[in-house]
Design brief:
Distance between the termini: 49 Å
Number of helices: 19
Shape: elongated
CATH architecture of the largest domain: 3-Layer(aba) Sandwich
Number of strands: 16
Strand content: 15-25%
Number of domains: 2
CATH superfamily of the largest domain: HUPs
């Protein structure tokens, strides 16, 4: 059996309205989940919501709701969007679920019994918006709001105890943190003394959270609670239970803004609990608008639902995966989206399908023509398709998704040039068999391209395969069946103005 593939998105905060960043990460996870399923690997794709913490408690109070009622009202914002985006997650976990709380308390007990939790009085600056204590240096940056001085007893996790061990693990496992510049960022962070982590909040000021199993006067710090979703969703128990089938995670996909929590907090927690670390934490960049970070306060946040309504699901999925080099920032503009759509999807991909099907309908009674004996030009297309499939797999397995898409689109472009050079619409009048061979070759190339792009555009590629009567075919030359009846269709990607 092939190695299991377990991929996760961040645990999204329930109080946020889903934006282009949420959509991007979730589509990204979905693409890789679809890809590995297609390759025959047992695959588990997890996403979910973080529903505890002070901001949730306060938001519920403002609405005159209980925190549970408030969370229940917010969940459809995410689940409805995932449905619209054709997200194929295997589980959706909420940190308010009993299955999650049970595992959080189990992990807390394990860490406590390991001697890694202690009680101490702390006095310092507390950021209400970030729901954590901050340093004087962080305060001086001016990036934190709602700051107040607090003096209270709390429980602390001996994170510093595992600093050297974590550094060693990162150095011995080069793919543990990706891309490389993020790994260097964390190693730089760990080059300074690591503070212990405050992991509790007294119920006197916050009661919306998972109660500490060893002190009922406190609830768990929201990040310590939320990170555990990655194993609680797997049914983790003392004997590792169902988690044995999936853990460690193949990839935690996250935004670069939560790298420290995932690359420092989470691994040290797991070390203390005696649980294996994830194989890789991959931090992608931000979507920018005119080189500025999207922000609700600035008013430049892109609503993915509006994009879908305007342009359709698959073009949105395609653009987001195509435009961002994984690990770097990318700019979003409507103009760039339209340009990419019209040049690559409408002119290259969609037009190739229309040309092929129009000519087959007109000259071959709507049936796939016979491929005949392949000449040099056709053999080249065939060899290029074989090379494409191999290169595509290498790029995908290396997390170079935009590169994988680029390879397919270059191939599609070459097939369009092949059609232009051989002009089957003229040749059919003089040499119908040769024209049929050209159409078969172009159709076969398009079929293989559709299969490769199916994780990125599941609906449109399904339509292509259905039109070509090749839905159950494989990524191997010869999947089109001569004589099979093709189906009528509207333009796959109508040009947009």
């Amino acid at each position: 059996m092939k190695k299991p593939f377990f991929i996760t998105t961040p645990i999204y905060y329930v109080n946020d309205k889903p934006h282009i960043g949420h959509a991007y990460t979730t589509i990204l996870a979905d693409v890789f989940a679809r890809y590995y399923r297609k390759k025959g690997s047992p695959t588990f794709f997890l996403t979910g919501l973080d529903e505890h913490g002070q901001k949730v408690q306060e938001a519920a109070k403002e609405k005159g709701l209980t925190p549970t009622e408030h969370c229940d009202s917010m969940v459809p914002r995410f689940t409805d969007l995932w449905n619209k985006l054709h997200i194929s997650n295997d589980d959706f976990i909420r940190t308010t679920e009993p299955r999650h709380k049970k595992v959080v308390q189990m992990i807390l007990n394990k860490v406590f019994e390991a001697g890694d939790i202690y009680e101490a009085e702390y006095e310092g600056l507390y950021s209400v918006s970030e729901e954590r204590f901050i340093t004087e240096k962080e305060f001086e940056t001016g990036q934190f709001r709602d700051i107040k001085k607090l003096k209270e007893k709390n429980y602390f996790f001996k994170m510093s105890k595992y600093q050297k061990r974590l550094i060693q693990h990162i150095k011995e496992n080069p793919n543990f943190i990706q891309p490389n510049h993020r790994k260097n960022e964390i190693l730089g962070f760990l080059g300074k003394p690591l503070n212990d982590l405050c992991i509790s909040r007294p119920k006197s000021r916050l009661n919306w959270g998972v109660e500490l199993p060893f002190d009922s006067k406190y609830v768990t710090y929201v990040w310590f609670d939320a990170l555990i979703n990655y194993i609680s969703a797997l049914g983790y128990d003392e004997n590792h239970g169902a988690s044995r089938d999936w853990w460690p995670a193949s990839y935690h996909l996250i935004g670069k803004d939560i790298l420290t929590t995932h690359a420092v907090y989470w691994p040290t927690m797991l070390m203390s609990a005696g649980i294996n670390l994830p194989e890789s934490i991959f931090a992608h960049g931000w979507w920018l608008m005119s080189d500025s970070k999207m922000s609700k306060s600035i008013g430049n946040v892109v609503d993915p639902i509006n994009l879908i309504d305007d342009y359709g699901v698959d073009p949105v999925r395609y653009y987001l995966m195509r435009e961002m080099v994984l690990g770097q920032d990318a700019n979003f503009t409507t103009e760039l989206f339209k340009s990419r759509y019209n040049s690559e999807l409408a002119n290259d991909f969609g037009n190739l399908l229309s040309r092929i099907t129009t000519l087959i309908n007109k000259n071959f009674s709507g049936k796939i023509p016979n491929p005949g004996n392949l000449d040099f030009s056709e053999m080249k297309i065939k060899k290029d398709s074989i090379s494409l499939c191999l290169s595509f797999d290498v790029s995908m397995k290396s997390m170079r998704l935009n590169e994988a898409i680029e390879l397919v689109m270059r191939f599609i472009s070459s097939v369009n040039k092949y059609m232009e050079q051989n002009a089957p619409w003229k040749l059919v009048k003089e040499d119908k068999d040769t024209a049929g061979k050209i159409l078969y070759t172009a159709g076969e190339a398009l079929r293989i391209s559709a299969l490769l792009l199916s994780p990125i555009m599941p609906k449109k590629t399904k339509d292509i395969l259905d039109i070509l009567n090749a839905f159950d075919s494989k990524e191997k030359w010869g999947g089109l069946e001569p004589g099979a009846k093709i189906k009528d269709h509207n333009p796959l990607f109508p040009r947009i103005k």
